[in-house]
Write a structure and sequence with these properties.
This protein has twelve helices and eleven strands. The mean pLDDT is 91. α2 packs parallel to α6, α4 crosses α5 and α8 packs across α12. 37% of the residues lie in helices and 17% in strands. It has two domains: 126 residues, Rossmann fold, CATH 3.40.50.2000; 169 residues, Rossmann fold (3-Layer(aba) Sandwich).
């Protein structure tokens, strides 16, 4: 019978910030089966020996009256234990009705939940640990990694640019990204990797940036799967990101990562020593209600921080 960790999040980034805890469970209980809503997570973790399998839950999870269908679904998955990384009475009840040993976050902690801290406390409590790392590393395919290293020129400063985001309130202007790239290009011999997905919206974002630069010094990831993109990201010297899943991918691939925080709380970007949050002028902390003006982080501020890390 299987031991599972349920990461009930659609976004890849929210799942990845829990990866260190999945790894802790695997140390104690063997390779883990992950339940998730994220369709991208399976590809991101396909080479992780700590993960037995990933099951994407695509039904019986949106409506209250599907509780018994969800319970039957979970029962057929043959779990012995299930650890739910969220405050969800419905998922907890469905799992317990299926006869599964179930643990989830305390329901009274649902409001203002700090995902990093709560995940750490939950893991320590259930595994009886005195301490628990919040940082971990993604696993790469060795052959793909070696092949990519031969292609990515070490004579360049390889820089990942993640210009998209989950919404307008977390998205720096594309012209500002271009300005930073131009300033870096004057300082170093740069190769830029533009991190976007395959959607039409993000392809347009990439096009607006790439048309400004020599096509031989720029690569767009829109035609790559997550597992194909990961070795390329791992070869980068720096990552400059909006609030996007690429900031989680890059820091977990050992790349120093600047995160522009306009309304992204520390609950999503405070678990790795390689995460460098950049605050708008006049702010010392950010939350979902801050919605700072995207003009309040200057090109010069990002450029200066980039120089300090690249040097």
């Amino acid at each position: 019978m299987k031991v599972g960790c349920f990461l009930p999040y659609v976004g890849l980034g929210s799942c990845l910030l829990h990866l260190s805890y999945v790894h802790e469970f695997a140390k104690k209980k063997g390779p883990i089966t992950i339940l998730t809503f994220s369709k991208s997570l399976e590809d991101a973790l396909k080479y992780d020996p700590n993960v037995k399998e990933i099951i994407v839950v695509s039904k019986f999870h949106k409506k209250l009256f599907d509780l018994f269908k969800l319970s039957n679904y979970l029962k057929n998955l043959n779990f012995k234990e299930l650890y739910i990384f969220k405050c969800s009475l419905r998922f907890s009840l469905a799992s317990k009705l299926a006869g599964i040993y179930t643990k989830s976050y305390s329901f009274y902690k649902k409001n203002n939940l700090h995902l990093v801290k709560q995940g750490r406390e939950f893991t320590m409590k259930n595994l009886q640990l005195k301490s628990c790392e919040t940082e971990t590393r993604l696993c790469l395919n060795k052959k793909m990694q070696d092949k990519t290293k031969k292609i990515m020129d070490t004579g360049f400063k390889n820089i990942l640019i993640a210009p998209s985001s989950s919404g307008a309130t977390t998205m720096w202007k594309l012209s500002y990204f271009v300005d930073v790239m131009k300033k870096l290009e004057k300082k170093f011999n740069c190769f830029f990797v533009i991190a976007v997905d395959s959607s039409e919206r993000e392809r347009k974002i990439a096009k607006e940036i790439t048309e400004t630069f020599d096509e031989n010094k720029i690569l767009t990831l829109s035609d790559k799967t997550i597992s194909q993109a990961m070795p390329i990201i791992a070869c980068c010297d720096l990552s400059i990101c909006n609030d996007t899943s690429f900031q989680h991918l890059s820091c977990q691939l050992n790349v120093p990562t600047l995160i522009l925080r306009f309304d992204t709380p520390s609950a999503y970007s405070s678990y790795s020593k390689l995460q460098y949050p950049i605050y708008p002028d006049g702010y010392s902390e950010i939350n979902h209600d801050t919605r700072a003006n995207v003009d309040s982080i200057s090109v010069e501020k990002i450029f200066d921080k980039s120089l300090s890390l690249l040097n």
